[in-house]
Amino acid sequence: MIKRIFAGISYGVISYLLGVITTFLLVASKVEQLLAQTGANSGSLVARASRTPEVWQIIMWVFYSEHLVSIKVDSTSALGAVATSGLDQNTFALYGLRFWNPGLFLIPVVTITLIGFIFSYRTPDLDLKSVVGNGIVMSLGYALFGVIGAFFSTYAIIGFRAHPDYAGLPIMATIVLVLSLVGGGLVIPLTDSAN
Questions:
Q1: Listed residue (6, 26, 32, 35) closest to 66, CA to CA
Q2: Which residue has the higher pLDDT, 174 or 85?
C-alpha cells in the first residue's frame, strides 16, 4: 500500500514535469520573442521597471493557464496599487501572449491521461477501487508540485507581483484527478479482456 502511494505521487510528479517540459518546448521561443518586443516598448510598465519576468516564469504561467488557473496581479504596496490600477489582470500578467493557442489545453489532457493509464496498467489486480486510489495519489503528487511551482513562478517588482492564482489550484487538482481517473479507467477493459 505504501509503495503504491509513493508510486502514485511519483507518477503525478512525472506528469507535472512532462506537462511543463512540453509547454516549454512549444512556447519558449515565442515567449523569448515577446519579451524582446516588450523590452523594446519603452512605454510599458515592465520596460520602465527595467526587469522583465524570466522566460521560465511566463512558461509556467502558460502551463497554469492550461489548467484554467488564471494569472493574478497583486499590489504589495501603495505604489503597486497605483501602478497596477489600470491594468487588466490577465492581459498584463500574460503580456498579451499573442501565441496563445487553445490547443495548449490538450497538454494536460494528454499527459495526465497517459500517465494515469501507465500507472494503472502497471498496477496488479486492477479494479475500479484501485483506479480511484491511483487517481487520488497521482493528483496529490501533481498538486504538490503545482503548489511549489505556483510560488516559485511568482514575479515581483516595484510594489506588485504576478503569479498563478492560488485560489485556482483546487481547480487544477480536480482536473488532474478526473483525467487520471479517465486514464486509469481506460485500462480496465484491457485487463478484463485479457482475463
A1: 26
A2: 174
Residue from 131, 144, 140 nearest 182 by CA: 131
Which three three-digit cell numbers place residue 57? Answer: 516564469
Q: What's the alpha-carbon Rg for the chain, to the nearest Å? A: 19
Cα(39)–Cα(163) distance, integer angstroms = 20
Nearest to 138 by CA among 12, 34, 4, 2: 12
Distance CA(17)–CA(13), nearest Å, equals: 6
Tell me, what amino acid is at 58?
I
Which DSSP string corresponds to 152-190? Answer: HT-EEETTEEEEE-GGGHHHHHHHHHHHHHHHHHTHHHH
Q: Model confidence over 28-65: pLDDT tens digits?
A: 888 888 777 765 444 444 444 556 678 888 889 889 98
In the chain, where the domains are located? 2-186
Confidence of residue 99 (pLDDT cuts 50, 70, 90): low
Express each pLDDT in 79-93 by its tens digit: 444 444 444 444 444
Cell 498538486: give the residue.
Answer: 143
Amino acid at 139: S
Q: How many Å apart are CA 95 and CA 72, to the nearest integer?
A: 12
CA atoms within 13 A on the CB side of 98: 7
